[in-house]
Specification:
This protein is an alpha/beta fold and 254 residues long. Helices cover 35% and strands 24% of the residues. α3 crosses α4. The longest helix is centred in the C-terminal third of the chain and has 16 residues.
Length: 254
């Protein structure tokens, strides 16, 4: 099995806190990989290590057969990233943002203009392409950040909570776009708290808790040995030891 992404003993310390603890990821090429975990489990820190925003304290990373520590520019040419904080320039317009990113990736003017127009139309931002990013709603910023990630036609996409703050119509459009991307051979590494979407989209799953990878495999493997009809949410809650029901009620709420 060819792997688009692999880690061995990936670890990241912040002082005495170990946010990511000896994680061994195996993401098959051409897969839609859902990386799940409770708040504070280490998901975003893991993505930051994988995408070069944080240097791992220990461990090895291979992305598309390259070592991102030895060849960071080579890796960045082949990946797209939608980070947790979006990382957009508020004083640029949407069109200027895509133009800036296209120039960094060395796209020709013709290619850049064609891709930017298609992406802005797809994300329903074409009417606001000359508006400053600072005037965009959160959902509009999220769609622009996804357009930025897709612009250079990456082979591997890292998406940190891409559906947060997105309306139902845009969510469906983005889901269809991502499924099409994977069907053409792309690989996606996704984090999301919306487990219903993860269950619909992803064919591979990894679960992290307290910085450690506690489960990894295909959706079929995750369901193996469980009762028929169990949802990903039920499997996830069982893996992380969470209670499905609230342990106590607030009696003063009516």
């Amino acid at each position: 099995m060819s792997l688009a992404l692999q880690t061995r003993g990936l670890t990241r310390h912040f002082g005495d806190l170990t946010a990511v603890d000896a994680v061994d990821l195996a993401v098959p090429a051409g897969s839609f990989y859902g990386f799940l975990g409770p708040n504070g489990a280490g998901k975003s820190t893991t993505i930051k290590c994988l995408t070069g925003l944080l240097r791992p304290s220990e461990g090895e990373i291979r992305i598309l057969d390259l070592d991102p520590l030895a060849d960071p520019v080579g890796v960045k040419k082949m990946i797209g990233v939608l980070p947790e904080d979006l990382a957009l320039f508020d004083r640029l317009t949407a069109a200027e943002t895509l133009g800036f990113v296209g120039q960094i990736h060395g796209l020709s003017r013709e290619t850049l203009e064609q891709r930017a127009e298609e992406l802005l139309t797809l994300m329903e931002l074409n009417r606001r392409k000359d508006s400053l990013v600072t005037d965009f709603s959160h959902g509009m910023k999220k769609k622009l950040a996804l357009a930025v990630a897709l612009l250079p036609a990456p082979k591997l996409l890292f998406l940190d909570e891409p559906f947060e703050g997105i309306d139902a119509v845009a969510s469906r459009q983005i889901r269809n776009l991502l499924k099409s991307y994977v069907s053409r051979g792309g690989t996606i590494f996704l984090t999301s708290h919306i487990l219903q979407i993860v269950e619909t989209l992803c064919d591979q799953i990894g679960v992290i808790q307290h910085g450690r990878l506690i489960a990894q495999g295909s959706m079929e493997e995750m369901r193996r040995g469980t009762e028929d009809g169990r949802t990903l949410e039920q499997i996830f809650l069982e893996l992380v030891g969470a209670e499905a029901e609230a342990s106590a009620a607030l009696d003063w709420l009516t």
